[in-house]
Amino acid sequence: MEEEWDEDGPEVVKRFMYVNRKAPYGTVYALEMLEKVLISAAFEQDVHVVFMDDGVYQLKKEQETKAVNMKNFSPTFRALEGYDVEKLYVEKESLEARGLTVDDLVVPVEVLGAKELGELMSKQEVILTA
Amino acid sequence: MLLHTVNKSPFERNSLESCLRVAEDGAGVLLIEDGVYAAMDNTQVSDLIKKRMGNVKFYVLGPDVDARGLGNQSMIDGVESVDYAGFVDLVEKHSATQSWV
Amino acid sequence: MKIGILVNEGPFQHQASDTAYLFAKAALEKGHEIYRVFFYYDGVNNANKLSEPQADDRDLVKLWSALAEEHKVDLVVCVAAALRRGIKDDILAPGFRISGLGQLIESGIQSDRQITFGD
Predict the structure, then answer these.
(1) Nearest CA distance, A120 vs chain B (angstrom)
(2) Fold for domain B2-100?
(3) Contact A130/C at CB under 8 A
């Protein structure tokens, strides 16, 4: 029996944005949001992942979680590219407020000012947030 | 144009602040749940809304205002109260919704 | 209009589930279609039939079940989030079903509007 692949891709492609605003580990939102992003990669949608406010901390290098008995999931951000999730954005104001630069982050990102982020957000069709 | 919802108090969280930093001109901002406290005039944070009153349309969910006993407090001028049916209309009227939790 | 709803919080702890329910009810009364309500994070606890609120308080689990029954609303609980929180088939309230995260993405694709209720 032939597999029912759609050679031209999915019927509907929407602009999805995932907005991460929470720090990792203190709550589960960061981890379960990442699981959502990975699943959505399989649906071949136009995925944008945004980190702002404390969400920028999810990307911080050198996370060592053994002593708090939790899984360190920050390496998974590096794997996103392999899933064709390449549009990662960080809000400039959030980085600066926290004394961070892109060199502190585990993965390459595009830095957007609040206004540019607002413009990008206004073009999205589905916005999922936590 | 997006609809932005904010459901946390501006005294507890920076959600409204972040929302207003990012929300584009012409967007709608609907305050719900604990977010309605931001709609009250004469508080330390009333300026958050006043500063963007000219270029963002502000709404507040009436039932949440009433639940919190704020009905008789003065709301910031220009904030429009809606009920759940009005909430649905706002979602329909805007292109997508971003929830600032 | 077809609306997709995401509920990120459990009943009673946060207002999210209440607001989502009242929003859904208003949308249905206006003649809109709720494509799916997807429960994620602690939202999966809205499906727990063992919930027993006080007699004079609203019963959110039953309210969601009634919405499913009266309006054929699809209530989906994320399997991974559910397993973490011990929500399994044998304690699922009527009207809820357990399925994968893909159902949320599909809701975003198929709905005209997708909205999140959380904390």
Answers:
(1) 10
(2) Hypothetical Protein Ychn; Chain: A, (3.40.1260)
(3) yes
Q: Which parts of chain B fold into alpha helices (H)?
A: 15-22, 46-52, 62-67, 84-93
Question: Residue C48, SS3?
Answer: strand
ipTM over 0.90: yes
**DSSP 3-state of B65:** helix
Read off the pLDDT of each residue in A82-101 and give the average, rounded to a whole number: 96
Q: Which of the following CATH numbers is that of domain A15-129: 3.40.30.10, 3.40.366.10, 3.40.1260.10, 2.40.10.10?
A: 3.40.1260.10
Structural domains for chain C:
2-117 (3.40.1260.10)
CA B29 vs CA A32, A85, A122, B40, C21: distances in Å: 27, 29, 13, 15, 20
CA atoms within 13 A on the CB side of B80: 10
> How many percent of chain C have pLDDT more than 70?
100
Burial (CB count within 10 angstroms: exposed 0-12, middle 13-18, buried 19+), residue A71: exposed
Residue of A nearest to C113 (CA): A126
Q: What is the mean pLDDT of chain A?
A: 92
Residue C55: is its pLDDT beyond 90? yes
Q: How many CB atoms lie under 10 A from the CB of residue C31?
A: 7
pLDDT reading at A5 higher than 60: no
Output the pTM of the full model. Answer: 0.95
* Cβ separation C115–B32 shorter than 8 A: no
Q: Residue C34: enclosing H or E segment and its boundaries?
A: strand C33-39
What are the residue boundaries of the structural domains of chain A, listed by start?
Answer: 15-129
Contact state of B84 with C25 under an 8 Å Cβ cutoff: yes
Q: Between these two residues, B66 and A40, which has the higher pLDDT value?
A: B66
pLDDT digits (tens, 9 = 90+) for A104-120: 999 999 999 999 999 99
Tell me how far apart the alpha carbons of residues B66 and B35 are, in angstroms, rounded to a whole number. 13
Contacts of C19 in chain B (CB under 8 A): 7, 32-33
